[in-house]
Structure formats: structure tokens, C-alpha cells
Amino acid sequence: MYVGIDVGTSMVKAAAFDASGREIAVESRPVALDIRDGFVEQDMDEVYAAVVDVLAALTSGTAGPAGPAGVELAGLTGQGDGVWLVDAQGRPVRPAISWMDGRAHELLDEWMASGVFASVFRRTGSAMFPGCPGPVLGWLDRHEPKVLDGAATALYCKDMVFQRLTGVRATDVSDASMPFLDPRTRTYDDESLALLGLTHRRGLLAPVSDPVAVGETRGPGLPPGTRIANGPYDLPACALGAGVTRPGDGLLIIGTCLASLVATDTLDLEAGEPAGLYISTDRQGQWLRAMPAMVGTAALDWVLRTTGVRHAEVDALLDQAPPGANGVQVLPYFAPSGERAPFVEPRLRAELTGVSLETTKGDLVRATCEGIAFAARHCLEAAGLTGDLAVCGGGTRSPAWMRLFADVLGRPLRVVEGEVGARGAVLAAAERYGVELDAASWTRPTAVIEPDAGRAEFYTVAYAKHLAHLAEARRRGRGRGGG
């Protein structure tokens, strides 16, 4: 039995697989987000307890849902970005600051105006946003310096869990990619730290293990002595779990955030608008050009809550409303910290236009789903997609939305269902330990959805209108003193 652990933003999951990649069982537990006035935090002890709980439920001897098989090895992945401050024993010194947090937007505004933002991108290939470690550590250095003084490490989510499980203090090249890693040398870039005014906090950065760190579990959850590997974080783990490794091929993750990733063997830090990031992978000379947008299923969830529509009704409503949603348009930028890909606008906010007394719930739902799909197309184009496209995440549970995505993107979708991030974490662990697994079998798609030619043509025109609407919204935001 092989176990993958995925420590998500709102849900912690552990999945068991057999040697062929068949998903045997999954255990999950929700974890809370404390959201107030643009601050988004999480209780690290609650997150770790959820990890222990799902692992114990999954592997508790013959009574566990995975059956009597022993654990060959485990792989760990989880949400990226944010800051998870711990002491020398890996215990929290304050609540974790989530990647969704917006408190550092004014500091990011300063860096964008001064040129620091662009300079760091050209050195690291990482476009900062309010919830990434650079701005968050900068904010803490200004407002909570004593907390930083009392911390031993500023970790990422999965690194906190790994240290608690094994006692090993480490991160990997994928998590370190945002925003301090030089993707050419695969080490921390001291000049970027100096530009951000964080040289004196360099000691808080965890050692970068290249390849990923390994250890043996010593605490509850998994049997003591279980071999476990730390990383990569959830975006590159999903790419591995979906079989996206060939340059030009891409992955769209339709989750809380909308992540677009394209595999590449070319590193160009000078071209294009500073946005997204280059994620270093365990393979030298290979990266993922990533456009992890803040927009995602959270935007649709807000519209459903506001309109009183249940998730089970979404497919029927999408089928009832025509393409174009009877003139309703949605710019789906609902996150408190604005948007981070394929552009950075910390103050950008959502807009609903074309609404009248004749507008139906179906129009609002379809317009929102279309807006999210347009954002995906924008990100994938910016990331350089030229090959096949895989898709995974919670949004794939809606067949009607998947058809809409195929039409908007104008290309077939290789749907990969199940716990794709946990699957990728196991594949990364197997490679690190030299355990041979059939990657093609583990990453086989469950369906392929073809676009409708007529609707794809319609959406090509609608997408151009979306871009024009977005450009105007960005101009208005800057006029109000935005990023």
C-alpha cells in the first residue's frame, strides 16, 4: 500500500493506492480558515491533528478502509505559499498566515511602484502577491518583529507537517520557488532577499533539500518507521499525478484557486509581464510555468451561496442558460487579495454586468462559470500551452462545466479524477526511494471531453470581450490607487 497525503487549504486528505495506482481508499477532514478584514489564518495544531486523524483512519490495521496491507512508503504534499512560523521543535509560534491573506497588499504596492517587484521576478521567475512569503515576512518584520525573533523557521504548510512527523527541518525546490529561489542555481537568491529588506531574516528559511527530503515517521498517524518523502507542493504534485511532464503539455486545476501549469525545459526570466512563476521540479533543467490564479471554485461558491443555489443544481442551470448567459458577464476576481496570475493586481475586485430584472439564477451561474473559464484560457495562453491539456480538481465533478471549459478553451480535456495531488506525492516519493512504479498506469485519464466547434467559435469572440472588460477594470483599479 502506498499513501499520499494532501494538506489542502480547507480539506486534509490521505489516499491509499495499490502498486498499479488504483485508489483503494480516501479519508478526509475539513480544516477551518479564520477570515477577517483581509486577514486569512489557520490553526497549525488543528491542521496537524487532521493529518494524524486521516492517516490513523486510513491505516489502522485490518480495521482500516485500506485493508491489511502494510505501508510501503508515503508521500506528502500540500498548499503552497503563506508563512507557517514554528519554533525549533516545529511547534507554532503564531497562527499560520494563508496564501489567501491580503494584509501585505500595501507593502506589495510599494514594491511594485519602486521596481523591487519586477527586479525580484527577473531574478527568481516569481511574481509576488500579498499571500506569498516575501510580502508576508516583510509585513511581519514591520508589525510583529518579536514574533519573528522568537521563531526558528518560516515554513510552508507541508514542511510544518513533515517536521512534526519526522523531526526533519526542510523544504523542497518547488515550495522554495516562491519567491526566494534562483531557478538556475536551485539555491536561495541573496540579492532578492536584500531587495526585499529581508537579509537579516535569512536564517528563518528552511534548508532546501534537492531532491526532496526523506525521513521516517516517529509520531502518530502512520506506523513508526514508515518511509516518507516531503514534497513537491500541491501544484507540481498534481502535475506529476496527471502525467504532465512533456514540454508544452499543461494541467488545469479547478479548485479553490485556478492553477494553470505548463511543463517547459526553457527558462526565460526576461520575457512578458511579471506574473506567475517558474516552479523548479526534482528534474534538473525542467520547470513548470505556472499561472496560479486566485479565482477558482471559491468564486462560484460565493455566487451559489448568494443566490441560494445548491451545488447539485449547477449542471441543470448551465444547460438551461445559453452560451453568453443572456448578456450577463462576470469578472470573477472575488479574492480579498485581488489577482496574481496572469497579472498581479492586489486591488482588483469582481464585477457583474449586464444584469436586469429578467436575469435568472441560471444566467448568473453560467456567467460565473464562463468568467472562470475565460480566466483559465488567459492563464494557459500566458503559460505557453502548446500540447495536450489535462484537468483535475473539484470542478471536474460537474460534467456541464467541463463541457463549457472544453468549448471556451477550444481543445480536448484529459480528465484525471481522484486524489491527483496525493497520487503525485506518491510518485515523487517512489522516485526518491528508487521504487519502480508504472507512471503511465498511475496517471491514466478517466475521460476525454471534446469541444463543440460551434460553441468554441462563439467563445473565441466572447473571450475577446472578456479581455477588453478586464483591461478596463484594471485601468479603473489603478486609477483608485491600486497595484
Automatic annotation (TrEMBL):
<keyword id="KW-0808">Transferase</keyword>
<dbReference type="InterPro" id="IPR043129">
    <property type="entry name" value="ATPase_NBD"/>
</dbReference>
<protein>
    <submittedName>
        <fullName>FGGY family carbohydrate kinase</fullName>
    </submittedName>
</protein>
<dbReference type="InterPro" id="IPR050406">
    <property type="entry name" value="FGGY_Carb_Kinase"/>
</dbReference>
<dbReference type="Pfam" id="PF02782">
    <property type="entry name" value="FGGY_C"/>
</dbReference>
<dbReference type="InterPro" id="IPR000577">
    <property type="entry name" value="Carb_kinase_FGGY"/>
</dbReference>
<dbReference type="InterPro" id="IPR018484">
    <property type="entry name" value="FGGY_N"/>
</dbReference>
<feature type="domain" description="Carbohydrate kinase FGGY N-terminal">
    <location>
        <begin position="1"/>
        <end position="208"/>
    </location>
</feature>
<comment type="similarity">
    <text>Belongs to the FGGY kinase family.</text>
</comment>
<dbReference type="GO" id="GO:0016301">
    <property type="term" value="F:kinase activity"/>
</dbReference>
<dbReference type="Pfam" id="PF00370">
    <property type="entry name" value="FGGY_N"/>
</dbReference>
<feature type="domain" description="Carbohydrate kinase FGGY C-terminal">
    <location>
        <begin position="253"/>
        <end position="430"/>
    </location>
</feature>
<keyword id="KW-0418">Kinase</keyword>
<dbReference type="InterPro" id="IPR018485">
    <property type="entry name" value="FGGY_C"/>
</dbReference>
